[in-house]
Amino acid sequence: MSANGTSVGLDVHARSVVACGLDGRTGELFERRLTPDHGEIAAWIGSLPGPVAVTYEAGPTGFGLARFLTGRGIECLVAAPSRLQRPSGDRVKTDVRDARHLARLLHLAEIVAVTVPSVEQEAARDLVRAREDVRGDLLSARHRLSKLLLRQGIVYYQGKAWTGVHERWLRSQSFTLPGLQPAFDIAHDTMLATVARRDRLDEAIAAMAGDSAFTPVVTRLGCLRGVSTLTAFGLAVEIGDWHRLGGRSIGAYLGLVPTESSSGASRSQGSITKTGNGHARRLLIEAAWHHRKPYRRPGVDLRRRQDRATPAARDRGERANRRLHHRWASFDARHKRAVAANTAVARELAGWCWSLAVLDG
To answer: How many other C-beta atoms are found inside a 10 Å radius of the C-beta of residue 227?
Structure first.
């Protein structure tokens, strides 16, 4: 049971906030519909019997309210929506009922809170996620352009696509049918504009990765194969404080452990849970594929990244690279399905990333 005098649940929306306070001593409920103004919310909370603790669900409204209340000396937990307990027979959902439910869970100390990032970390995270959004936009733009040409029976056979040579080939295409040339020009221009947006974001990420609070972690993570500046910076800002995790727990935190349904003597495991931070999980899954290729010595790019790190980080990175390739080789020797093997390697890679991130020096 909570030791708070009043447990407050907030159902926060863009234009309204429904608040419910539960007095832990008398069981009295205090309910109010408020505006999203932080000052008004804090003033109402201040009128309740103390001490007061507050919770609301993580969502699109962000962490500004939590930072404001914490700055006023009010304990505020941002609840992980996926971990909120709700009775299976509860089929009525309203703002008031949600606020009451949050207040009761907080009173029972059943809130699983997410970590509230700093303003600087959240800004860096927004930069990384903007780059990921542009990556998806570029994939769609290239797909539309290539399929427009394919419908005309035009296919590029002169090597790898989306290179300088391919770009010159695209510029040489012309059509006489009315409407087809403008359609091609728009698709081509959209693709080029998206590439320019991606490059601008890459430059911003490289600048921040080289001179920010995340630089030491980015430098150490760069000792791993497949973890270049973009991946290392993305992992650094998505996870933030690595010390709150452990080498064994980080796989579960990122949803890289298998689901399980066990009863009695039977044990059944399925696909990975995919809980936690999906952005960091995708980065690790992509990086794990790089460890399938044979590894004898660092390549030029990897050596350049390792030269910026300390001897301890380089040594740990080398041991990780050899260990992860050995894991891949053992999976291949057993003819394990490549996707499943890569997920297992990504889970171990997450542990190596953690060990480098918390490494002193």
So the answer is: 29
Which H or E run contains 258?
strand 258-263
Candidates 39, 34, 57, 45; CA nearest to 6 is 45
CB 355 within 8 Å of CB 259 = no
Indicate whether 1 pLDDT > 60: no
Reported as a single tens digit per residue, the pLDDT across 43-93 is 999 999 889 999 999 999 999 999 999 999 999 999 999 888 888 788 888
Question: Phi/psi of residue 62, each to 5°?
Answer: 80, -160
Residues 251 and 257 sit within 8 Å (Cβ to Cβ): yes
CATH architecture under which domain 6-107 falls: 2-Layer Sandwich (3.30)
Cα–Cα distance measured from residue 286 to residue 52, given in angstroms and rounded to the nearest whole number = 44
Specify the 3-state DSSP secondary structure of 151. helix
The Cα–Cα gap between 126 and 288 comes to 24
Strand partners, 17: 12, 34
Write the DSSP symbol of residue 118.
P
Q: CATH 3.30.420.40 occupies which residues in the chain?
A: 6-107
| Residue-wise burial string across 28-57, b where 16 or more C-beta atoms lie within 10 A, e elsewhere | eebebebeeebeebbebbeebeeebbbbbb
pLDDT digit string, tens, across residues 198-217: 999 999 999 999 999 999 99
